[in-house]
Amino acid sequence: MTDMELIKDISVSSPTKIVLLVIDGLGGLPDPKTGRTELETARIPNLDALAARGICGMADPIAPGITPGSGPGHLAVFGYDPISSNIGRGVLEAVGIDIELQQGNVAARGNFCTIDEKGIITDRRAGRISTEKCTELCKLLNEISVRGVDISVHPVREHRFVAVFHGVYDSADITDTDPQQTGVPPADVKYLGPGAIGLSKHVKTFIDKARELLAAHQPANMVLLRGFAGKPRFPTMQEIYKLNPLAVAVYPMYRGLARLVGMEVAKTGTTLQDEFDTLKQNYKKYDFFFLHVKWTDSAGEDGDFARKVNVLEQVDAALPDLTGLEPDVLVVTGDHSTPAVLKGHSWHPVPVLLCSKYCRTDPVQAFSETAFLTGGLGRIQSTDIMPLAMANARKLTKFGA
Questions:
Q1: For the chain, how are helix, strand and coil distributed in percent, rounded to 5?
Q2: What distances in angstroms separate CA 245 from CA 78, 82, 159, 213, 386, one per listed residue?
Q3: Alpha-carbon distance 59 to 379, whole Å?
Q4: pTM here?
């Protein structure tokens, strides 16, 4: 892992441009019926052509064998230590929908879920209810009163919401209520240190009252909370890399994460093409672009192999919009793998491709996990991606005499 203080010392501002395309949940595993992964199944001639032009490899977001969440996975791609910089998902969601958190506040990411008459979770996402339904239910939850704290509940997208506990807490160190599996009841709230006792009591009361309020609102008759955290402070990408960065992302969590590391976040539409169009419209104003594609990950988590293949093909079809801009550096990678056969994030390394006029090409001719195992980058850490991109953009000076 490259030391960020070293990068800060040798980075320089320049007019060259870097585009970082993060295809969420990019990596996969073979379909038992065909023996091919999603990437190996998809018709992606533009990505294959890029692989033939650039240098390829595989990246570990955290470390071999460690399954990353989306937050740590993205922080690593941005060059931040994903372990020491790890933050709760609630903060990412909150900042992503423009909630201004104060020091001492705690935010949690929430799911509306379905429980049966015995209190057992049957669907962690309540059938992916509509955003309109989520907004309606959040208004209901905002009626909850808990002595000693103000609580606000904000809709995010589909079944997701943010709950903010507007207290002045010493610690957010409490356990999640989301067991991240079905067939079990929601987990109990437990504090992990004396500074979080008050928070744990407030959260438990809120959840008990939410259960009562939502009892008649099938399929969204319960809530799950996870990622409790307060507002962190990171050195920004401007401070470290001397960049003028722009993020283009649809989903709030990734918009929030980009803000936390100092990126300006563009207003964009709700489709893949909207995102590519937004980047093109802003291309002259910035020198670094983070473009996020979420739908590959959603398909993988749903176990929908064919849908993930389809999204990859959509990305490939839109890729000429990026390559036509002729960025000095184009990186294509993912924050983690989400194989459809596992229906969730996995520990497998992620494909990474770098194109610039200064990169050494390799024999790789196809954009896939198997092909990239023989690539010239070898197996690297995701934290190595930004220094490589910066070097290829000629934004790093020489270290030492």
A1: 35, 20, 45
A2: 11, 20, 30, 43, 13
A3: 6
A4: 0.80
Tokens for 282, please give them. 């802003």
Distance in angstroms (rounded) separating the CA atoms of residues 42 and 371: 14
Tens digits of per-residue pLDDT, 219-278?
999 999 999 998 887 899 999 999 999 999 998 889 988 988 999 999 999 999 999 999
Q: Are residues 162 and 261 in the same domain?
A: no
CA distance 246 to 145: 39
Q: Which of 168, 198, 229 is the last residue of a domain?
A: 229
Q: Are residue 218 and residue 357 in the same domain, yes or no?
A: no
Domain boundary among 229, 252, 286: 229
Q: Residue 326 is encoded by which pair of tokens?
A: 């002729």
d(CA 309, CA 291): 19
The whole-number average pLDDT for the span 308-325 is: 97
Q: Which of 121, 129, 130, 124 is nearest to 109 (CA)?
A: 124
Name the helix (H) or strand (E) containing 23: strand 18-23
Instruction: Please state, in angstroms and rounded to a whole number, the distance separating the CA atoms of residues 161 and 142.
Output: 12
State pLDDT tens for residues 240-250: 999 999 999 99
Written as one letter, the residue type at 269 is G
Q: What is the pLDDT of residues 183-198, one digit of tens each?
A: 999 999 999 999 999 9
* Residue span of the structural domain in which 68 resides: 4-86+234-392
In the chain the first and final C-alpha atoms are separated, in Å, by 22
Contact 4, 314 (CB under 8 A): no
The total of other beta-carbon atoms located within 10 Å of residue 224's CB is 24
